[in-house]
Design brief:
The chain folds into two domains: 142 residues, HAD superfamily/HAD-like (Rossmann fold), CATH 3.40.50.1000; 65 residues. 41% of the residues lie in helices and 12% in strands. It has nine helices and six strands, in the order βαααααβαβααβαββ. Helix 6 links the parallel strand 2 and strand 3. The longest helix has 19 residues. The two termini are 16 Å apart. Pfam families: Hydrolase. GO terms for molecular function: 5'-nucleotidase activity. Its EC number is 3.1.3.5.
Amino acid sequence: MLDWSQIDTVLLDMDGTLLDLHYDNHFWLEHLPQRYAVANGLSVPEAQALVNQMTDELRGTLDWYCLRYWSDALKLDVPAIYREVEDRIALRPHTDRFLRSLRAMNKRALLVTNAHPDGLNHKLEVTGIDQWLDAIISSHDLGHAKESSLFWHSLQERQPFDPERTLFVDDNLHVLGAARDYGIAHLLCIRQPDSKNPAREITEFPAIHDFDEILGAR
């Protein structure tokens, strides 16, 4: 499926790509609304509706991913609440073997994520995946979400790469579209970013279920 001889740099999303998106979905759709309900004397369905409405309005923007923004908006310590369900943080299948494989093939592996630094650092502490990465870039450091073309230009300035010899793996179709528009030649989408939800039918981009489908050198 991939000609690894044509790839020097591998850009990797985190949530839904390297890590199971179930953690984040559970947090935003269930756990945080429950805590918001208790803090504001609401029923859980009422809190879920309010939180969902607020997040939907900002979907795809940098604020949508910003834990500090939501702390201010909801009047809650969102980074602290984020840690209350850390037992759900988990690698997706074959992630560790895939990262080791990239190292064995001497590929440059960069984590490029929309995750806010507070949540990002926590997940790195839990999973230890940073040991296999050559650099870690959060969109919050660049000032633009990955959905924006400005992110990719800023990334190129921060961590120069040849788009024609770069593989980018993500679960977000809008982000993959932005990467394609920038000129990244090799794109892959994750079919089942959340292990508790069904796999998706992906037609816009080449797609895989798990990393074992593209593992290179063992």
